[in-house]
Amino acid sequence: MTTRDRQIDRRWEQLHTWGPYGLLGISVVLALASAGMFDYTTEWYVAWALVGAALVLQLWWHGTRSRRPGRGRIPSRAGTLYYVVRWAIAFVLTWIDPFFAFYAASGFMDADELIPGTVAQRVGLFASAVTVAGAQAGGLPFGSGLQWVLFAALVAANSGLQIAIAHLTEQESLRSRERGETITELERTNTALQQALDENAALHAQLLVQAREAGVADERRRLAAEIHDTIAQGLTGIIAQLQVVANAPDLATARTHLDRASDLARHSLGEARRSVQNLAPIALENDGLPEALKNTVAEWGERAAVRAEFTVTGTTEQLHDEVSATLLRIAQEALSNAARHARATRVGVTLSFLGDEVILDIRDDGRGFDPLALPDRTRTGGFGLDGMRARAERIAGSLTIETEPGHGTALSARVPLVRHE
């Protein structure tokens, strides 16, 4: 409820409380002005007594209202009794002097406040209209038939007008209650919305923390995978070349493998630096993925002394850097695994462009393995199949493997074709 609404309610309360006093005072002043109350007759002694009774009644009701805080506008039996007694006093006073109709009109103000039930309220308004209409028609009792006709018309007009006003007042009260309920509901909704906003803010802050932690973890995984795909593989190749040098039959052969080891060391160092800087692999620096794969397969075949072939199918397109780097790393890991574990004599790598996706297939004729019998990855082990699968899934791709002991291995990485920006 607004401040303005509270002020209006307070003024109505004051009118209901002090209005009957004021109307009784106006009636007495007008009756005195008409000189009727100066007549020392039995009738006016009764009038003076009734005025005193009306004042006592008002004081009693005023005290009753004061003892019922917050309930002054709730109809009750006590309110009905007060209304009936006041009407009776006003009716007799108006019979004695029509000016007391002002006091009788107080019944129009508070019937809805005092009398419970709509029908009873209408009856109270009609009774007050009878008293007021009697005064308006010339005062009771009537001396002619014309006064009775006028009285009937005035009763109908007064009661109809007051009932219409009461109906409108009731409708306005109903709308006020509905507005109050709507405002209360809106306040509850706003409170719930504010709570939801606060919860969302807290959740947002929590998500930021989780995203930051996830970003750190993802960067750690990326660096670990890059180190495995570059430094670890490079060191493995260097060790293999040095082992050949150790067993070389002549100086020329040793020098050849030492040159290869040196090239691998420089290549691995460059890849390590690029991994830390989150750049594309060296092989992709100047070439697209097909050319980079071709060179990688050729170099690996020469180092591993394995027949390695590379094929491209479909219409070649310039891929997004992340897609190219992912497929190149998968190919490097697959070739490294073939060199270390497969004992293959022939390896084929195929890059297929199929319109909306790219497929990288690596096949070897090695000894194969049982995928269900693979041991869990240890701290000293490589990333292997799990690492390749994680790389593919990171760009919404997938990795499938077909192998069995003695029948080689076929690995297929399928990723969306995202063109270079």
Strand order of the largest sheet: 1-2-3-5-4
Total helix count? 11
Order of helices and strands: HHHHHHHHHEHEEHEE
What is the typical, i.e. mean, pLDDT?
81
Percent of residues in helices: 55-70%
Q: Proportion of β residues?
A: 5-15%
Could you tell me how far the N terminus lies from the C terminus, measured between alpha carbons in angstroms?
Answer: 60 Å
* Class computed from helices, strands and strand pairing: alpha+beta
Spans of at least 5 consecutive residues whose pLDDT stays below 50 are 378-382
Major sheet, described briefly?
5 strands, mixed
Extended strand count: 5
* Overall body shape: rod-shaped
Walkthrough of the structure:
The protein has a five-stranded mixed β-sheet with strand order 1-2-3-5-4. It contains eleven helices and five strands; from the N terminus they run αααααααααβαββαββ. It has helices spanning 3-33, 42-66, 77-96, 101-104, 107-114, 118-136, 145-246, 251-276, 289-304, 321-342, 384-394; strands spanning 307-313, 346-353, 357-364, 398-403, 409-416. The two termini are 60 Å apart. Helix 1 packs antiparallel against helix 2. The longest helix has 102 residues, at 145-246. Helix content is 67%, strand content 9%. By secondary structure, it is α+β, with helices and mostly antiparallel strands.
